[in-house]
Amino acid sequence: MNKSELIDAIAAKADISKSTAGKVVDAFVESVTESLKNDDQVVIVGFGSFSVRKREARTGRNPRTGESIEIAASNLPGFKPGKALKDAVN
Question: How do the domains of the chain map onto residue ranges?
C-alpha cells in the first residue's frame, strides 16, 4: 500500500473526502517526525511505538578496497509493533 492508497482507504472508512484524508495523513507524518526530532517517543496503544534509536560510531570495511573506514554515530527512527498489531498479522 502506498500513500495514495492509504489516503483512499482512510477516506472510505472515515467517510471523509480524499482531500481531508490527505491532510490527515500529512499531519500524522509531520507530527511523528517532529516528535522524533525532539527525541520523544510516539506510542499508539494497540498499534505500536515510534522511537529514535542511537547507533554508535563503528569501524567498517570498504568492500571494494578492503580498507577500514570510520562510520560516524547516527540516530535512526525505529518502530516496534504493539501486541494487537502482531496478533492481527499472525
Answer: 1-39, 41-82
Closest CA to 56 of 72, 39, 68, 40: 72
Q: ∠ CA 79-80-81 to the nearest 5 degrees?
A: 115
Q: pLDDT (tens digit, 9 = 90+) per residue, 33-88? A: 999 999 999 999 999 999 999 999 999 999 999 999 999 999 999 999 999 999 99
CATH of 41-82, one of 1.10.760.10, 4.10.520.10, 1.20.1530.20, 3.90.550.10: 4.10.520.10
CB 44 within 8 A of CB 83: no
Cβ-contact 49, 41 below 8 angstroms? yes
Query: What global pTM score does this model have?
Result: 0.80
